[in-house]
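Try this one yourself first.
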């Protein structure tokens, strides 16, 4: 019980820090220190976790990936490709509302950290006609970027769940596909239908040439899929390759001066994002090193809570705390595996419960980076996301009962 009280106090402190407008990266660093203090983590162990995290290859690689995503976003604008992509997708529909869903959904096929920021520049272009506040931009782009995590086999969380359950990934995909459909439905109801309907953007039917043009404009998406996912090339290398291609495009158009080159490199760097990436990684390392969550299942069981509630709260809380599918699946599935083994509907329920936590997690890089990119307010963002995520949770309970 004392474990839950300490976690609750830390959660309240973190919310207060955010409400006081402390940058989210520094809020996480403060939370990491307080977590170590609350759970009696030795100073030497905390310092070691801090050092190993900041200078680890995985942390440096993560920041490189995030930096390259920002760099590509800038060059999409500099080369005029962002405008061309938005124009190509607008030719496929009579009004702009579908376009704002298509671009983040397509980018969502790419399993990459901070992927919502990758689609953000394109989304912003397509949504410019609506003059949306920052929070609505964030919510729409963020929501449609994450449609496929239930059923797209390139996401490592789905593969890990398949391995832990010892079932073919295709079976898990089929079992969880209704969640993707329901998430699309929620996105349309809460985010797209309220947008004003704007007059026709095109006349006549969509031609094959229009579709082909749209697909070719998204060449960098297919390059990442082929290189990093199917070809086994590190995603950082794939992003670097794409950045190089954009630079060559600017050179060929004689639009790249040395001044512009260094300006692009400088603008892609953000100290706030650097601190955020480092602090999120430090927070996760401190949680693991402290071992604080190891006793969570036993504490919940001792309270005499219903089994179904425990199957929900453990993955949800782990998703909320870690913000990473791979992490909550690895921990929560290991804990509840004796209960859900061989029961795909129950496994889908646990998976969906954890993902609901991830969607609301301030540690989730997509959400945290998008907040910085759009300059959104945390409170207003959560007001937009809370009800759709709550309905997603309700759907997971109903889905389990009818199955």
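Now uncover the answer:
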């Amino acid at each position: 019980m004392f474990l839950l009280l300490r976690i609750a106090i830390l959660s309240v402190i973190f919310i207060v820090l955010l409400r006081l407008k402390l940058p989210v990266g520094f809020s996480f660093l403060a939370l990491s220190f307080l977590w170590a203090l609350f759970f009696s983590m030795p100073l030497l162990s905390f310092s070691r976790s801090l050092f190993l995290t900041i200078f680890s290859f995985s942390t440096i690689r993560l920041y490189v990936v995030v930096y390259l995503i920002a760099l590509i976003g800038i060059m999409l604008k500099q080369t005029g490709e962002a405008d061309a992509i938005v124009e190509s997708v607008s030719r496929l529909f009579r009004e702009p509302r579908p376009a704002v869903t298509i671009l983040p959904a397509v980018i969502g096929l790419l399993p990459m950290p901070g992927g919502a920021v990758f689609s953000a520049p394109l989304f912003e272009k397509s949504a410019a006609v609506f003059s949306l506040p920052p929070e609505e931009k964030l919510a729409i782009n963020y929501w449609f970027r994450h449609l496929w995590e239930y059923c797209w086999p390139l996401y490592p969380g789905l593969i890990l769940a398949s391995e832990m359950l010892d079932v073919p990934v295709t079976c898990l995909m089929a079992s969880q596909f209704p969640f993707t459909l329901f998430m699309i439905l929620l996105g349309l109801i809460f985010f797209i239908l309220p947008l004003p309907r704007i007059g026709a953007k095109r006349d006549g039917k969509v031609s094959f040439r229009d579709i082909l043009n749209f697909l070719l404009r998204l060449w960098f998406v297919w390059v990442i899929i082929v290189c990093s996912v199917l070809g086994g090339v590190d995603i950082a290398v794939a992003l670097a390759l794409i950045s190089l291609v954009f630079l060559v495009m600017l050179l060929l158009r004689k639009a790249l001066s040395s001044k512009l080159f260094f300006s692009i490199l400088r603008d892609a760097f953000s100290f706030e994002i650097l601190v955020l990436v480092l602090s999120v990684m430090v927070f996760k390392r401190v949680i693991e090193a402290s071992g604080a969550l190891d006793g969570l299942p036993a504490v919940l069981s001792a309270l005499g809570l219903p089994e179904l509630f425990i199957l929900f709260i453990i993955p949800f809380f782990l998703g909320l705390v870690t913000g990473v599918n791979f992490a909550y699946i690895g921990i929560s599935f290991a804990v509840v595996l004796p209960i859900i083994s061989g029961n795909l509907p129950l496994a889908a329920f646990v998976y969906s419960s954890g993902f609901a936590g991830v969607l609301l997690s301030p540690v989730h890089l997509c959400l945290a980076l998008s907040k910085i990119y759009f300059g959104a307010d945390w409170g207003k963002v959560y007001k937009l996301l809370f009800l759709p995520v709550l309905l997603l949770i309700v759907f997971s309970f109903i889905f389990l009962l009818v199955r």
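Discussion: Residues 143 and 187 are 7 Å apart (CA to CA). Residues 2-196+208-402 form one domain.
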